[in-house]
């Protein structure tokens, strides 16, 4: 477990080389820059180069156009210092105007096609009437309205039975009644208002439609077909326009993105009069790489200093772990970041998380499935969780061999045990009554060991920081370790019939450490040369007594919390036993289907729950004892 050693870097040059430096600076994916404001505020005469970014607005405008046109742009990498924003904007706006013109024609055609389709439906509704449509719509005293009315509005027409109109419904669908109503010229406005209040949608028969309904159908269908041909042509024009401009716009977007990134990087540049500097941290191993990046710029000076050489800056933390532990850093980052001078708990989490998960989810078949799914997630979806699943799947498989379970089958591995160990069946029967109590005792024992291990880590951390009070007197310090360890060891000996709780044992290893924990705050003040009880012993005693009671209770709850490890071992075995029983009852193809579905359900449901429960143990039972996570995340310009 390691935290990468940092070096403080100063990149300095004359102002005329600023753009050259920035072009290389924005590509440094191993450099943690410090904002110029940290230096400008503390030194008179220094300046920052932060100013309004003219690139951001243009880039946002172009991105809006790309989204509006639904362009699928290729990924390009363009870098240039010679650019013309007006020319870029003019080109993109010209393309967009052509697209808008074509899109407007497309939308108009779609609207007309829909209107003609609706009119065709209405004409079909009256095609049995042998009547000239021209005569029908040229009536002087009778007014006819074709359209559609929401179904729930049809029922409301009964409230207007005394009004002068005739209503005719031709057919209905799930939403509308396709209909017409007839009224006189005198009451036209009144009746139109009634139907409008009922959300009547009028469908007009186009002016080019003449003659009988049969002839009108032919005219409408012909018009619809012609409109579809025009629509197809417009779509082809738009598609060709997109194809024509995609690469050019991709170049513009890429160049603007790079320029915007470069301009944003100016907030890390400190103005030194005629010179400038960029300050940040890199890992010690990356120093040669940094110098090589700027080797072509002879005018640029790179100064390498110790990480703590500038008291205004705190070194960031960059985790450095091996193959197995590396993906578990995601859990560390969820909780916090280790201090630069602290230690990286990632390997501890990797081992304990994998062991606990494997024990709680022990099954050879399901463990292999977890490995395969994790590999797919990491390989094709680039998900760090998939890399974690590969490792915990390995431990699930290992414990599956210990428990003798393959997709819930408890006898499949018996020949293996016989061939290797000479046993007739698997050595551990999880669901047997003789195994349950030892399992729960082992689970509590694991919890007690991990709690003491966490306390030891806390002692080491505070000893390294020269924090004597927390190291010696806290519940997670030496006093806490002696008190908790004495209880655990004493309980262990008592369980095997050996009593160690003598008066001297209780006094020295239980009472005295508990008293030191009780007096932690006064003793820490004493170490600092202050009064032990500044507010009086009575006030301290009342507050300290209840705190001590809470501490003792936390020791118990933290230990018993690990019972969930044994509980999930039993839960997993019980669920798979239920699946197996249902498989046997179903038999044949049905049994196979039950087996597949049951295993998938258990893997998804219980796998998720076990993963969360183990993470809870890591955070609340272990991290809370030794890990604060108050460090600064190592973050590059591209993060």
Kindly summarize this structure in a few lines.
The protein has 639 residues and is an alpha+beta fold.
Characterization of the model:
The protein has 22 helices and 12 strands. The chain is of the alpha+beta class and 639 residues long. Among the domains are: 1-115 and 243-315, no CATH class; 116-229, Alpha-Beta Plaits, CATH 3.30.70. The strands form 3 sheets. Strands 2, 3, 4, 9, 10 and 11 form a 6-stranded antiparallel sheet that branches. Strands 6-7-5-8 form a 4-stranded antiparallel sheet, sandwiched between helices. It has a two-stranded antiparallel sheet with strand order 1-12. It is a multi-pass membrane protein. GO terms for molecular function: ATPase binding; proton-transporting ATPase activity, rotational mechanism. It holds the Pfam family V_ATPase_I.
């Amino acid at each position: 477990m390691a935290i990468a050693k940092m070096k403080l870097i100063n990149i300095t040059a004359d102002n005329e080389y600023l753009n050259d430096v920035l072009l290389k600076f924005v590509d440094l994916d191993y450099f943690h820059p410090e904002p110029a404001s940290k230096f400008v505020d503390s030194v008179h005469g220094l300046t920052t180069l932060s100013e309004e970014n003219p690139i951001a607005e243009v880039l946002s405008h172009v991105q809006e156009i790309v989204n509006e046109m639904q362009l699928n742009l290729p990924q390009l990498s363009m870098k240039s210092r010679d650019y013309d924003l007006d020319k870029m904007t003019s080109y993109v706006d010209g393309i967009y105007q052509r697209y808008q013109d074509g899109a407007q024609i497309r939308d108009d055609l779609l609207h007309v096609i829909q209107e003609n389709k609706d009119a065709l439906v209405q004409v079909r509704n009256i095609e049995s009437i042998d009547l000239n449509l021209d005569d029908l719509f040229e009536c002087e005293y009778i007014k006819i309205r074709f359209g559609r009315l929401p179904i729930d509005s049809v029922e409301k027409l009964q409230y207007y039975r005394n009004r002068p109109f005739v209503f005719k419904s031709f057919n209905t669908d799930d939403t509308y009644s396709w209909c017409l109503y007839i009224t006189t010229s005198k009451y036209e406005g009144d009746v139109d208002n009634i139907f409008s209040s009922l959300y009547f949608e009028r469908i007009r028969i186009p002016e080019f439609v003449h003659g009988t309904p049969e002839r009108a159908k032919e005219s409408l269908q012909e018009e619809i077909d012609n409109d579809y041909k025009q629509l197809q042509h417009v779509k082809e024009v738009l598609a060709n326009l997109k194809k024509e401009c995609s690469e050019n716009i991709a170049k513009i977007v890429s160049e603007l993105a790079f320029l915007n990134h470069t301009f944003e990087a100016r907030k890390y540049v400190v103005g030194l009069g005629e010179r400038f500097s960029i300050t940040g941290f890199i890992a010690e191993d990356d120093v040669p790489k940094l110098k090589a990046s700027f080797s072509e710029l002879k005018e640029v000076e790179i100064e390498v200093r110790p990480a703590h050489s500038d008291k205004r800056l705190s070194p960031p933390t960059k985790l450095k772990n091996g193959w197995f532990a590396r993906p578990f850093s995601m859990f560390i980052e969820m909780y916090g970041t280790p201090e630069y001078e602290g230690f990286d708990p990632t390997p501890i989490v990797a081992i304990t998380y994998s062991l606990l998960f494997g024990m709680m989810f022990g099954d050879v078949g399901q463990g292999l499935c977890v490995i395969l799914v994790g590999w797919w997630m990491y390989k094709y979806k680039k998900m760090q969780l998939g890399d974690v699943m590969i490792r915990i799947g390995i431990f699930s498989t290992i414990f599956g061999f210990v428990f003798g379970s393959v997709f819930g089958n408890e006898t499949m591995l018996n020949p293996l045990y016989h061939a290797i160990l000479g046993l007739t069946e698997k050595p551990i029967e999880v669901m047997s009554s003789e195994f349950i109590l030892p399992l729960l005792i082992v689970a509590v024992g694991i919890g007690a060991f991990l709690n003491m291990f966490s306390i030891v880590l806390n002692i080491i951390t505070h000893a390294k920081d020269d924090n004597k009070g927390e190291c010696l007197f806290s519940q997670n310090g030496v006093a806490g370790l002696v008190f908790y360890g004495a209880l655990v060891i004493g309980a262990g000996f008592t369980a095997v019939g050996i009593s160690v709780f003598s008066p001297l044992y209780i006094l020295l290893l239980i009472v005295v450490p508990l008293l030191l924990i009780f007096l932690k705050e006064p003793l820490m003040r004493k170490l600092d040369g202050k009064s032990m009880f500044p507010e009086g012993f009575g006030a301290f005693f009342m507050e300290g007594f209840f705190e001590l009671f809470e501490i003792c209770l936390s020791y118990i709850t933290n230990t018993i919390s690990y019972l969930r490890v044994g509980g999930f071992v039993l839960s997993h075995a019980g669920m798979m036993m239920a699946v197996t029983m249902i498989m046997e009852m179903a038999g044949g193809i049905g049994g196979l289907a039950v087996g597949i579905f049951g295993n998938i359900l258990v893997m998804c449901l219980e796998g998720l729950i076990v993963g969360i429960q183990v993470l809870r143990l890591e955070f609340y039972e272990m991290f809370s004892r030794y890990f604060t996570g108050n460090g600064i995340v190592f973050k590059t310009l591209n993060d």
